[in-house]
Design brief:
mainly alpha; about 60% helix; globular; disordered N terminus
């Protein structure tokens, strides 16, 4: 089987050297073409509203998942290491890929990073929504550091980036669109299971991703890179052995959580 899914400096790496490398890439969108997510996204729920209370109920209800297989999947989906990312979308895509053999796809997702980060950071700084474990007591699937408690909930960066990747992969492998987007949806939901994002933040992350991806299609360079990635992936799939052992992951992705 080909090397596992590893998108190198792709946008799923939110911190460290990988992010630094990605941020050196020129963005596809100039400032005039960059959508203002602070105006497009609904504002984060505030205390006293139905959305705010719905978030609280979902957070408390999903604490019951602690120790389950879905909890373990949420822990996996928090990990941005190469080893973890190597399998995140492999079952959904039906092929394992790597940046050495698919450089155009790696370059595409890397260059998307500055545009996605701009949208995400603007919206987070605008809304300043607390994370759910700071509102109600409950377990999280990862250790919570002091710096993490200072970061904002809305919209979810994990959901933004995973849904963006899902949209791109679905575009270049449309026959796999359903499992790809189902896995991308579950990836975002893992943040709710983990207890580090509210459900509204995950919903907003998917909306944010759709906003930015739509805007990116206005760029001729982006469209050319998508076409190159499509040809590259088609060649990889033509000679690859499909992954095995995906039944357990598929069952978890299919779960209705809240």
């Amino acid at each position: 089987m080909r090397k596992a899914l590893l998108l190198g400096v792709g946008f799923l790496f939110i911190g460290g050297a990988a992010l630094a490398d990605a941020q050196k890439q020129p963005p596809y969108l100039d400032p005039a073409a960059m959508p203002d997510t602070t105006l497009i996204l609904p504002h984060a729920p505030v205390k006293g509203t139905a959305r705010y209370e719905a978030d609280r109920k979902i957070f408390l209800r999903t604490r019951k998942l602690k120790g389950s297989a879905r909890w373990a999947m949420a822990q996996n989906d928090n990990d941005y290491s190469d080893a973890a990312l190597s399998k995140d979308f492999t079952c959904a895509l039906g092929v394992a890929i790597n940046p050495q053999d698919e450089p155009h796809l790696s370059q595409l997702v890397s260059r998307m990073t500055p545009d996605l980060l701009k949208a995400m950071r603007d919206a987070k700084d605008f809304n300043k929504r607390k994370r759910p474990f700071l509102i109600d007591k409950g377990a999280t699937c990862i250790p919570v550091t002091p710096d993490f408690t200072k970061s904002y909930d809305y919209p979810s960066g994990h959901a933004t980036f995973s849904w963006s990747l899902g949209l791109i992969l679905a575009e270049i492998a449309p026959d796999r669109a359903t499992p790809i987007l189902a896995r991308a949806r579950a990836y975002g939901e893992s943040r709710v299971v983990c207890g580090v994002h509210n459900a509204s933040a995950v919903d907003a992350g998917r909306t944010e991703a759709s906003i930015v991806i739509a805007a990116l299609h206005s760029s001729a360079e982006f469209r050319a890179d998508v076409d190159a990635a499509r040809s590259e992936l088609a060649a990889a799939r033509a000679k690859a052995i499909p992954p095995t052992g995906c039944d357990a992951e598929n069952a978890l992705v299919a779960q209705s959580l809240y």
